[in-house]
Amino acid sequence: MKTNENNPPRRHAARSLIALAVAAAFPLHAAIAQEAPEAAKAQPGQLETVIVTAQRRSENIKDVPMAISTMKGEKLDVLTAGGQDVRFMSGRTPSLNVESEFGRSFPRFYVRGLGNIDFDLNASQPVGLVYDDVVQENPVLKGFPVFDVEQIEVLRGPQGTLFGRNSPAGVVKFESVKPTNKREGYFSGGLGNDGVVNLEGAYNLPLNEQWAARVSLQSQTRDDRVRNPRSTGTQELEGYDDKAARLQLSFKPSKDFGALFNVHHRKMEGSATLFRANIIKKGSNELVDGFDYDNYPTDGINDQTLTSTGTSLRLRWDLDGVTLHSISGYEKAEYSSRADVDGGYGASYAPPMGPGFIPFTAETGDGLPKHRQLSQEFRVESNTKERLQWIAGVYAFNEKITVDSNSYDTLNQNKLNGFAQQQQESKSWALFGSLNYAMSNVWKVRAGLRYTDDQKDFSAVRTMDPRIPSSYVGAIGPLTAKPESTNYSWDLSTNYELTKETNVYARIATGYRAPSIQGRILFGDTISIGDAEKNLSYEAGIKQDLFNKRARLSATVYQYRVKDLQLTAGSGAVNQNRLVNAEKAVGQGVELDFQAILSDEFRLTLGGSYNDTEIKDPNLFVATCGNGCTVTSPAGPGANTSLINGNPLPRAPKWTGNVTLRYSKPIGEGEFYAYTDWTYRSTYNMFLDEAKEYTAKSLVEGGLRAGYKWADGKYEVAAYGRNITNKVQLIGAINFNNLTGIVNEPRSYGVQFKANF
User: Fold this and answer.
1) Which of 296, 294, 286, 273 is nearest to 355 (CA)?
2) Nearest in space to 64 (alpha carbons), one of 669, 497, 694
3) What's the distance, Cα to Cα, between the start and end of the chain in Å?
4) pLDDT (0 to 100) of residue 164
5) Alpha-carbon gap, residue 534 to 272, rounded angstroms
6) What is the pLDDT of residues 568-609, one digit of tens each?
7) Is residue 229 reached through a cis peptide bond, with omega within 30 degrees of 0 on the bond before it?
8) Which of 39, 43, 80, 692 gets the highest tally of CB atoms within 10 A of its CB?
9) Smallest Cα–Cα separation from 721: which of 747, 749, 746?
10) What is the four-CA torsion angle of 326, 52, 86, 141, rounded to 10 degrees?
């Protein structure tokens, strides 16, 4: 098949969907067959070139030898239309899952099945999150709202060389829109069901030839939509008021030096996740008959607040032959979340109780009264056009946190009856470097190495034991730990240009997660430590432009092995987690990203992944659920234990898929468009062991947006719907008390107006 840059766009548009499907199925054959012009320029109707910074340089995504997906522009507008928090990303790119048991805060990220189901505010995650070049370590920082963002990059596979510790699964990278020397901005306002009001805007202001500022604001609010029919406990639930702001100042006094200052703030008040008692049919993963989303009988208190503030300063010097970078970051947060974990009212020893059987009350809260994170990176890189390019740097990180764990006596006016506190200081420093060498005009190799030193100083005390209600005593501690580790991470990759349209690559990389501590001793007398884990990953793939850049394909196959994998195990009938190390875990799979301009009216994206994961440790067992669930894992050596050897990783669906289709048509002086998006994920285990009740069903969710743009896109009005089929089902659970479940968000809908100026 030959293409000709002189062919008009409509001739290319006429190629059928069948041709696109064949090219996607047999990309290498299609690439060899095509002979595109040597320097084909972008034309109307072509896909734009995607530039990423996955290797700490700006590069064409096709030239980067790793699996990367991006989100930006209209797609972000669509997915956040109803006030969705960062969980909107789940399933939108291959192998990515995002969930939370805390609602709009504390998101948990999973890439290729690797994640962490720990709910402790001191929990570490194997997916790094980087916002404007600053690592966000604590989970409560990772939920910062997504607004006025230039691009999101999802880097799959270990990122231990250039991004460092706690990224053996990958990195999710956010980049805000930067100040420019052009006066511009936008405003977006939306109204939706349940009293949703979404406001967002940005203003870019050039101050003079050297200075520019950009102010970005967002406000998301929703009324309470769930009612408690009882006179006890919180009466109105699931509302929120979530506001965030960002101010950036850029300073460019010369072509050789630039500075970018960033300060950002978030304040959120609302409800914690609703844990709903006995909504699961015993022996199945179905919701009980007559389940009513809007009804939540409870005797507990539910509230959540989060305040976070951060600043960063990025400096850049462009010198003869080298570029110097300095990135200084500071983050702090205060957080409190309280919920009725038993999900109902009363108890077996304090009737009336319900819904269903409540063996005992469980009302707890977690707080982060003190948090402070400092980070500093110095990096130097070559900026010549030589065959050899390099990067070298040093990184330092320091974090101090205090975590409070509280228990409340639900049957005694919800008074505090248990208190424990953790304090931890984490110190880490690293040296890193990367070499890129062009073996020829079409063949490049890359190699990287990082040395990391991690130390933690931990202490936990309990001053009030909720298990001794008569006297409210039971002090223990301080329990201390000082885990430390060092690690060398490395990667080796190669990228080969088969044709101007087609690159193939291969990559071997290692990743590392520092030792972790589970020190929540509110209901237990010991802490647990997870030793450092190490990941070795292999992947190969193809990245290809098709049909004169009217379509683009990226496909990857991968395999990894994790030694000493850190896992979070429940404690049976106790509201407590423990860290354990599995001897090994393995994963393998296939990932696909595809975009196409099908015609002047239609644009399509397709994505999907197959992730096969397995825990390999014949001697590892965990306590089973404490509520009589139907366990299907093999019995362990002790009573109420289960062997988990051979089980998939928790929250790791084997299949995921996503599709978007956009239709547009000129009407009058503007453009009408309709945009639909759908995601699919297969079943997954909620916990380490397997049980019928705690195997999440497969889930399909879809969205729809229709709107009209006019005045060259300056104005836009649209109507939207999220989860338009109103599919509500079990996505999480609590397994120590009763058949308590967590469900996904129901249907939402509304209208939006946007103006660019």
Assistant:
1) 296
2) 497
3) 44
4) 86
5) 34
6) 998 888 888 999 999 999 999 999 999 999 999 999 999 999
7) no
8) 80
9) 749
10) -10
